[in-house]
Amino acid sequence: MAVKMKSIIADLLNRSTKAQIIVLADKTIVYRNTLFNDIMHVPGHCHPEEEIAQYVLDDLGDKWKMKKVSGEVCICVVEKVTYEDGYTLVTLEEETADVGECLADDAHEHPVWIADKEGKINSCNQAAKQFHNATSLFEIVPWALVDCNKKEQSIYCQNDTHRYELQLVSGKACYVVELVSCHKVFPSENDIQRMLQLSEECYAIHDMEHVYFANQAMHDLLQLPAGQLNGEQLHEYVTEADLMILKQAQEEESRTWYRAVRIKTAEGLSQDVTCAILPIRLAGKAVFVSMLKKPITPYRREEAMDVVSRLAASMAHEIRNPLTSIKGFMQFFSEKDLLPQSFFHVTKQELERIEQIVSEYAFLARTQDREEVTEICIKAFFQSLLKTERMKAVAVTHPIEWVSKAPVFITGCKKDLLFMFEHLIQNAADASEPGTPIVLETDIGEHDIRVCVVDKGVGIPEERLHVIGQPFYSTKEKGTGLGLMICYTIAEMHGGAVDVQSEIGIGTRVSVFLPRTVYHKPSSSHFTVKEPVAAIGE
Questions:
Q1: Taking the domain 374-521, which CATH number applies?
Q2: Comparing 5-14, 273-282, 485-494, which segment has the lowest mean pLDDT?
């Protein structure tokens, strides 16, 4: 090739935005531009004429598997143009994804994952599957540690079992991640046991058959001496049916399971508790950490009511008086057209909400004697309930379906029962989309009746069911958490109970059990108004 022509070609190739080389028919490189040298790590002083085989490990047609001077392996997409005099112009572009594919074969000793820019793992080698068979890159690399502006970076991570170093290469359309080094780490069993021993909640570490460790709170719940549970067989304290939950939990290691289970105490008594079950690996062994929580009992709810009634006694009267004045002035402004109707409507709704809250507090702090206990016909009671203004307003957006049963009688306080069922129906409406019906079901037993309020709303998460009915806990954005507590208390005053079952996306069923004849008058601690606690120094 003439010297002048070579000079022209060299100038043209160096102006190119892509790596290019000129190859003779005998596979000799006669010229390479600066970008090719950069990609292949070729020193500037290297002789221009050399065999193409020095770089190309495998010709895959439109791609070459190439080895850089530094020893790294890469894949390049190639375009070839051959001229009449036997010269071939080859244009190359390194493809990061295929570098990963080259690395992510089972022969490569280090784990390698290839993921798209959204983090979805498209391929990995056998070593990667053994380390962590993930579906998303960000299960391995926290997103916060990835610097999208860097082409290559080293990242140091730690999970529950490993501390490791990753090499991440960012391509145009993918990430390639290689595990460079890894060390197993885990807390000692003694450390975990000491932490759990400090908790007031009931914790146990166990496998499918034996209890390895239970803290003092767990021993107290089961009425056992300290340390006796450690090493015991699990079926001695948990029913066979509930043990099946462990098999389900074992299949989904990353998920925490929440279930109501029945445990057996040392005296042979059964207790229903809420159990959170988390599968973990401890010292390389698959085990479970279970936390038991007793549902709130009538006694604990009575204690809570005692505290809340003190607060209610000092608040209800002070709030209701100014509230009445505000409502009167708002009505006056509306009648005189001094306030836009849209403003009046919003203000009226908010005032009604405040009134409802005050009513709940006033219920707790009621000073007068309770309404006389009477015999109540359930059929007539619900007919009357559905005709109230509040229920008519609910029925406008949520049809209330009730199938009348044969007349059955209970003994109780009608006003309290009206409050309870109005509140439960309103809750069902608040949790449901407009147009969704609310169903009232009644089942008659030999000694009691069950009334169910059923909705098809959003449902309550399983892990929150055990706190339903506790004071000041609400699943609604503007709820006070008092309404359901009062409902539980009313049912218990009548010798009954409330049970809540729910499933996310399906709906909620609230069952109220009421005995047909027995009624317990409220104790003095339930609704006796106590004087507000005086400030220090008064």
A1: 3.30.565.10
A2: 5-14
